[in-house]
Amino acid sequence: MAKTEKILTPRTFIMVFFFIIIVPMLPLIISWHWGWWEAWVYAGINIFGFIISRYLAGRKNPDLLIERGQFLQHQNPEPWDKTLSPLLGLFGGLVPIVAGLDARFGPSAQFELWIKILAILVILAGHSLGSYALIANRFFSGMVRIQTERGHHVIDTGPYRWVRHPGYAGALMTYPVIPLLLDSWWAFIPEVLAIAIIFIRTKLEDQALQEKLEGYQEYAQRVRYRLIPGVW
Description:
Layout: H1 2-7, H2 10-31, H3 37-60, H4 62-69, H5 81-105, H6 113-136, H7 166-174, H8 178-181, H9 188-212, H10 216-222
């Protein structure tokens, strides 16, 4: 019961409701185009993907939900992540806003159905990879930090056998195709900024882990690539 109370704080409830329910619905709310099936698909994948992934992660590691629920309230995040983490959330949140405005006053693009179907499949794959990483790694925090009080150690199972940062890799798959699903050239602007943050954050996080987390340098020698197998 105590763990449940820590997870379901008023702050956590408000954050989840806003970022997981309201934000994915913004294209529909802003455009007021309630028959926009692509926006419903976008919202559904985000909302139900969150619910399913957190349910599975919570069953395996309930303390992980507490850790992630303390976003921006941690005592020892890496200093640079106090800026990068909120920026990533900001640019990610701007995508549905821009897409909604574009649909209301445009749209700026009308992509073919096959492109949208391909985008949906890529988004599902990206969400699946990110969820797999979340479930496999009980230290998958919303802020980059060494979680000494939780016995932080290297995770090398699940998708961490393929790349060192599969959560970011999943996001990197998903972000570029969202504007294709939502018929918005303008949405590529915040997407490009979000992708740039992902690369910067990945590099800095990897450096911090190699310097501060025991065993990570050896892990990095076994799993050579940070995000993209065979590339980087």
